[in-house]
Amino acid sequence: MSPRITFITAGRILRQLLNDHRTVGLILAVPALIIALISAIMDEAPRVFDQTGLILLAAFPFMLMFMITSITLLRERTGGTLERLMTTPTGKLDLVVGYAIAFGTAAAAQTAVAATVAFWFLGLDTAGPTWAVFLICIVTALFGMALGLFVSAFATTEFQAIQFMPVFVVPQLFLCGLIWPADQMAGWLQGVSDALPLTYAVKALTEVQLNPDVTGDMWADLAVVLGAVVVATVLGAATLRRRTD
Amino acid sequence: MPSTPAIVVTDLVVDRGKKPVLRSVSTEISAGTVTGLLGPSGSGKTTFIRSIVGTQKVKSGTVQVLGHPAGTKPLRRRVAYVTQDASIYRDLSVKANVAYFAALYGRSRHEAMQAIEGVGMGDHADKLAGNLSGGQKTRTSLACALVIEPEVLVLDEPTVGLDPVIREELWDRFRALAAGGATLLVSSHVMDEADRCDRLLLLRDGVFIADDTPADLRAATGTANLEAAFLHLIRALEGVN
Predict the structure, then answer these.
(1) Which CATH number characterizes residue B183's domain?
(2) ipTM of model
(3) Are residues B94 and B198 in the same domain?
(4) CA–CA separation, B100 vs A8, rounded Å?
């Protein structure tokens, strides 16, 4: 792996993204608007919004990164640029980490806008520090990226890649505690919930919400998500083949 | 003509799915030459080319490039590959595309601009690649390979759909690169390009039916042009069968 090539790759991916002005606008504005909508819906119940809004802050970059990574990488695969890159000094990890840096930056920008709106204008409240929320959101976004990288290997068209959203993303959103607390689900479903990385992102966020100081439990939960990032990234890198049929 | 082989292919067999695409082909390609790979579409040209750059899974046989097994690490700085469909980023400008590939090899933006000028795309440098015509995309893709000044340049049908003037310029460029010591392998299904090559490999149904210089090929078949020579060879083969 070469840090120089990794950063050149990240720069190229970011430039591709920035050339698409409409996508940049959607990335920055949509989560903030949806969170504002949720806040208005839960107008009478600010305590509930504190939970839901907080989870949404992490859920959006997770979904976004999954989607743009799987589509962008699919384009590299089908457009021939991946095959070309595999004949250059670019290593598989250079490419994967380049993606992580580029889209991690996009996730950070998205989270910054959404969090600013949620905390300052919508009155979202946590006992713990904002930076911890930010950190959890970025790591969760990276998990979305790594998952998108992995599943893009199983799609041959962009249409299929989009269909992977309800398969890989939606169940995690339903089971992570966003729409219903995990401990009030059917017993077997709690087991499933415990096996899904997004659940740990929500647990970590809940720790920040309830405790003024950063807790060991939060770090433990975040470590699980980070572990999932590493596993999915390695699996994703393994799907990049220098030689194909 | 220099005789050091830059590319050595020995008993190469490639299957795609269950279908054999290359049936035990062998050849040696000398350094500092332009070799034409000719054959109808579906004859295995792209598969042969992908085997040389090391992106094709092969069933058996070996491919050595500059003394290393095809596609191995030391070759990734020395071999450039231009795919049949332009492998460039549609959402980047011509300049950003070429500068990216240049940067991977530690080449400057200035060198990228020179490569863009070299393929006659200077006036379009700031256009998004997705908005270019087919021929312009091909030339951009070519610039991405030329900018790294490779020792071995493998081109899959690089002149399809190009203006005759630009085609002429590119062939002059290929000749100049070979004169400078580079080894070029160019696939084509246009016979009139064959005369610009030092040597021709005629591929049909996964086997080489000829491996000769254009002049010798004409002489051996007693024909005036290469199209006729190719036909002669095919008929002779079918007569044997």
Answers:
(1) 3.40.50.300
(2) 0.89
(3) no
(4) 7
